[in-house]
Design brief:
Layout: H1 2-6, H2 13-31, H3 42-61, H4 66-75, H5 79-98
Helix pairs in contact: 4-5
Length: about 110
């Protein structure tokens, strides 16, 4: 454990993988024209930071991937997977309700995601 604390963060394969995912998502969104610095507002920034912290906290509570907790639980017919699914839907509805507080629009059923 002490050796890991003394070494570079780039020596950890999981850290390098996570940084690669973040960089790849940024490059893909910038190449597709979806990421523009002119579109960043205080509300958008606040929503992103709060959402990222909550996702990280949820992943920590799940001891890894919180989506994996759902799929693993459902696949093994465990009660926690079903509870996770119900609470994830409740969290989605709460997030949609809170979007206007951050200056974000609520998607309509007729909106396309493609």
């Amino acid at each position: 454990m002490a050796a890991a604390l003394q070494s570079s963060v780039f020596a950890d394969s999981t850290t390098v993988l996570n940084l690669g995912i973040i960089l790849g998502a940024f490059i893909a969104s910038a190449a597709g024209g979806l990421f523009k610095f002119t579109q960043i507002t205080v509300g958008n920034f606040a929503a992103s930071v709060i959402g990222g912290l909550l996702m990280g906290y949820g992943a920590r509570l799940a001891f890894g991937c919180n989506i994996g907790a759902y799929f693993g639980g459902i696949a093994s017919f465990s009660l926690h997977g079903y509870i996770w699914g119900i609470l994830a839907m409740a969290g989605t509805f709460l997030a949609l309700y809170l979007r206007p507080l951050f200056g974000l629009s609520v998607p309509k059923p007729t909106d396309s995601f493609c």
